[in-house]
Amino acid sequence: MKNVNVDSQRNVCALLMIILFVGFGSSCSDSLNEDDVLIDVSDADASEDDTDDPGNGDEGDSTDENNSDNNDSDTQDDGCDDPNTFVFNEQDGLVNVEFETAAFSGDWIPASSESGFSGAGYMVWTGEQSLGQPGNGLTTYLINITTSGTYRFLWRSAVTIGDNGTEHNDTWLRFNDADDFFGQKGDNSFVYPNGSGKTPNPEGASKDGWFKIYRSGNDLGFKWQARTSDNDAHDIYVTFDAPGTYTMEISARSSGHAIDRFVLFHSDMMTAGEATDDANALSAISCDD
Fold first, then answer.
1. How far is CA 246 from CA 10, 33, 141, 177, in A?
2. What pLDDT, in 10s, does the model give residues 129-173?
3. Distance in angstroms (rounded) separating the CA atoms of residues 134 and 123
4. pTM score, whole prediction
5. What is the maximal distance between C-alpha atoms in the chain?
């Protein structure tokens, strides 16, 4: 109402000034209380703030939704919103997955305090060590293979406890339904998981078809490396004889081992450097109905 009163007073003054010239002009101007004008301006600012706040909130929500759409477009396009049903699709000989894109059990926690990760963050095991018994903190990934053949496995991981690169540096891995799962060193040295029915088996821990997958070196930050067999490092390979959906299993072993991303790449189609290029698109996600 203050704006209306000021305008009315100004109109009256203008009329009087026209009729009586300057006579009453100054008194009418004096009647426009400066405090009233300031109050009006303040009220107008408050009104703008009230209008901006919902607008900013809506804009923020819209931006968040857009970011979510961009980050999870494959999931949303296929109507997938449950990580338990995610299927990661190989394309052109490559499976490229942010490790945190899964349903986790036990004491796996998301984190982002270490530098050098990609995506939203990484997962780190914070529970008890499971050095001799795989199966604790079990996580699975369904992987759809369309190009059959032998793939090499790599992940980007880091040591987040202590300063020794030979401790807190490993996690269990198994491909129980693949046609072959093995470690290879050079052209002629192979190892197979204990419990697979194949020999020779790796040095160090292995059980029920699980490999202990470790990284080495005292550069403790995130790097691409995945090996098995203690003091006799073998790279990791998986063979899929036919197209289909296969299950990759992860199980906690060392506390403080952090995993950021993994790749499976057809060893006849690309190199490790090409497969781990950060510019590569993540694997499309479909839904396991």
1. 81, 80, 8, 6
2. 999 999 999 999 999 999 999 999 999 999 999 999 999 999 999
3. 18
4. 0.74
5. 114
